[in-house]
Amino acid sequence: MKKYKQIIYDQNISQRPAFFLIIIILISFFTFISVLNNSFIEFMDDGVQVINNADITHLSFFSIKKIFTSYYAGMYQPFTTLTYLSDYLIYGLSPKGFHFTNLFFHLITVLVLYIFLSKIFKESLLVFFLSLIFAVHPTCVESVAWISARSNILYSIFYLSGLISYYNYIHKKEKTKYYYLTLVLFTLSCLSKSAAITFPFVLIVFDIFYSQFTFKKIIKKLPFFIISLIFGLITIESRTKAFQFTDLSVYYNTLEQILLILYSVFMYVKIFLFPYINS
Fold first, then answer.
1. CA angle at 220 for the pair 232 and 188, rounded to the nearest 5°
2. SS (H, E, C) 140-195
3. Predicted confidence (pLDDT) per residue in 266-276, tens digit
4. What is the pTM of this model?
5. Cα dihedral angle (72, 78, 83, 87), rounded to 10 degrees?
6. How far apart are CA 12 and CA 147, in angstroms?
7. pLDDT classification of 259: cutoffs 50, 70, 90
């Protein structure tokens, strides 16, 4: 009987991660389900990216080419725009359909994050609480509830998937396929939002913690840094053309610029711990 109870206990342990994940997905879904009642916010990029964007109203070689060679709202995020095209073909200009896609992608992000954290931490409860915090944290509301912020969700999915792939590259024998998979996922992340250009630096952190950091490993990062540089330059150009790129040195001296950066970092920490808006 004691042996039988031990077997049952072991089975429960093995099934616990899946149970935790289901709970997180359900909580996240019901937390954000009200976004389905939201409308477009035309004066905040939804007009440019969706409502008045003729490039997402039909699927053709020329429309896809236009999407990959154009900036929208001062941003280069063609993969995100392709999802708007997909939504339009399915739902037309129904905001409920677009918001459903945002919510669906958010749940995918939670799933990928849970898998990633499960590789980093072996304690199921820790993974559960960390994933839950992300899943329902107020700072995620904008990305889920605002259609034009979908790029935040999409680039996170590919970013985290890329980190999972690189983790497998470090720890598993068939390294080559994981290396190229990581490169592809990183590129897709950049095509979703330029914030993904930080990815190569995170890979270096992985090398330091999980394997021996060598010159050969730096060389293998060159394709990642080249892609990062390309998308960084594209972002500067897109922001400049949209008059959204400001040379801070015109308005602030070096010390003031450093303080502005430190203030931004502090505000992220503050908002994470105390997510409220000052009246």
1. 45
2. HHHHHHCHHHHHHHHHHHHHHHHHHHHHHHHHCCCHHHHHHHHHHHHHHHHHHCHH
3. 887 887 777 77
4. 0.87
5. 40
6. 40
7. confident
